[in-house]
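1st attempt posting a full record on here, be nice pls
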Amino acid sequence: MPQERGLGKCENDHISSYGFPTRPAEPFAFCSQCGQAMTWKCAQCGAAVPEDADELKAARFCRECGTGYFGDEPEDEREGEPES
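the predicted structure (as tokens):
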């Protein structure tokens, strides 16, 4: 059976991994660099975050359902809101 592994990131865009040699065997809850919660998959639809580290660094929204990984809203939904 192949070892499960994956990439994730926190709200501060710190990338981390699990299941790779020298990495934890399972996903962990918090970023070791800043303490923010880690995201390994979309909370809405369960799709995995991008597996390419460069793409993951820039990703803020799920490719499958468009939900923001960290409560972000799509640009078109923010257009009518007043600026703070």
